Amino acid sequence: MKDKERTKRQIIDAIGTVMADEGYEKLGVNRVARTAGYSKELIYRYFQGMDGAVTEFFTENDYWLNALADVNTSRLEGPAAGGRLCDVVVAVLQNQMLDYFEEPVLRELIAQSVDRKPSRLKRQFAEAREAVGEQVLRLTDQCLAVRDIPFRGIAAIFVAGTYYAALHANRNRGRMCKLDLNAPATQEQLLKAIEHTMKKLFMN
């Protein structure tokens, strides 16, 4: 690996370290440079500043950008594709739940996206998530529209519920419906709930 690429890699990794240990709000150029072991001038040289470095980090690490990147939508089209589409939706939603429960960086990315401070980066990240999700949502529209199933609304509830449950479990050691969100048995129940609901929607 060339020196420039190694340095960039270590700076991006340092962003993840700071986020996981101290939170998104600590992502100052000085803090990241110290964690990476480089001068802050290299962040400006290689990324044109912290916004560029955070954008590159987000592109590599955001769940939705990566979860749907390799989906072959051509296999999910047509009247016989409902089962395959259901499998993709179940896998994406279940993996979202597992990843957000397990990965502190993902929780920080979503937590910072809903704080009250306006930010060009927050809008950019939200739009990027929406763009990758749309390729699958168009297919679910086609598959379920004939039965008038409001899948986009259902998906929004599942995605938002996962965000909240993961944050509540981690930050408050929380419970919901008298279930311990950090217990493996509870998480298995949540995974089954996703699969059960989606199969009812797609397969009935």
Please describe the topology of this protein.
Blueprint: H1 3-22, H2 29-36, H3 40-47, H4 50-61, H5 63-67, H6 82-102, H7 104-113, H8 120-144, H9 151-172, E1 175-176, E2 179-180, H10 184-203
Antiparallel strand pairs: 1-2
Helix pairs in contact: 1-2, 1-3, 1-4, 1-7, 3-4, 6-9, 6-10
Shape: globular
- Would you report the number of β strands? 2
Strand count, sense and barrel status of the largest sheet are: 2 strands, antiparallel
In the sheet with the most strands, the strands line up as: 1-2
* Radius of gyration (Å): 19 Å
Number of domain modules? 2
User: Uncertain segments of ≥5 residues (pLDDT<50)?
Assistant: none
| Percentage of residues assigned to helices | over 70%
Could you tell me how far the N terminus lies from the C terminus, measured between alpha carbons in angstroms? Answer: 52 Å
Strand content: under 5%
By helix and strand content, what is the structural category?
A: mainly alpha
Instruction: Give the rounded overall mean pLDDT.
Output: 89
What letter string, H or E per element, gives the SSE order? HHHHHHHHHEEH
Continuous helix count: 10
